[in-house]
Specification:
Rossmann fold; 4-stranded parallel β-sheet; about 10% strand; single chain; alpha/beta; about 260 residues; 12 helices
Length: about 260
């Protein structure tokens, strides 16, 4: 797709490093906590954190419900010189299962998968913020612009953070930055997933690929093209993409409050 939004990876790297340093300085923190899933967004965010601060000040949490990918990530963490004592490999299964049992959420319940996925995302948030309190740290988010615009996040779950270094980048731009940063190919080639249920992937949930989504969103929002101009054989899911964005835009304006 020729209309994919482009970036200069080198300039983005410098911009994000300066942003991270400024946030930490302005807020009076030296430490950060980040959730490392094994996917490209968290890998890129962690790599940029490492370029922004000493490894001893970074605390990494791998919070899994299904099989841990820590063995898969060990080499990557070693390359970044993250101290072993700063790495938390935590199963959230017992916590999530107990909560699921308490609220009576069964597999026969309507929207079981979605509700369970939200519980997992919010459980991870609890662990991250507890670690942040323990280590007097800010939580580094790992959300990209595509996820944000499409509402592909759990409110007060994976969306919860103190700063977001890559939220201004579309998913395809994150891939460009990952290649520039020499992120391991095993991570780059992994199908994007929130790890909320077996076989779950972002693009299966969407019903369209990131490349098409990023192109349509960029044409519509950045280049101010009318939807009628974008809809074509090249972008068969254009209406679906913009519809999803519009239906989830409420997530960006919460909580509602009474204006004084």
């Amino acid at each position: 797709m020729n209309n994919l939004p482009k970036i200069n990876p080198s300039l983005e790297e410098k911009k994000i490093i300066l942003f991270t340093k400024r946030v930490l300085k302005d807020q009076g923190f030296k430490n950060t906590v980040i959730g490392l899933s094994g996917g490209i967004d968290s890998a890129v965010s962690l790599s940029l954190l490492r370029k922004s601060m000493p490894a001893k000040n970074i605390f990494v949490a791998h919070l899994y419900y299904f099989q841990s990918q820590i063995s898969f990530l060990k080499l990557f963490l070693k390359q970044l010189n993250i101290p072993q004592k700063n790495i938390y490999n935590i199963s959230i299964k017992d916590s999530v299962d107990q909560l699921q049992k308490t609220i009576g959420l069964t597999k026969s319940a309507k929207a079981h998968k979605l509700r369970l996925g939200n519980i997992m995302a919010r459980a991870r948030m609890v662990y991250l913020y507890d670690l942040a309190k323990k280590h007097k740290a800010l939580v580094c988010g790992t959300e990209n612009k595509s996820e944000f615009l499409l509402g592909y996040f759990t409110r007060f779950g994976d969306e919860a953070s103190d700063f977001e270094p890559i939220r201004h980048l579309y998913k395809t731009q994150v891939y460009d930055l990952a290649r520039h940063l020499h992120i391991p190919k095993e991570i780059i080639n992994l199908p994007p997933t929130a790890g909320l249920w077996n076989g779950q992937t972002d693009e299966k949930d969407f019903g369209f690929p990131y490349q098409e989504a990023d192109t349509v969103l960029s044409l519509y929002l950045d280049r101010k093209k009318a939807l009628s101009e974008i809809t074509s054989k090249e972008y068969p899911n254009a209406k679906k993409i913009i519809k999803r964005m519009n239906e989830n835009s409420f997530k960006h304006h919460l909580p509602h409050t009474i204006k004084p």
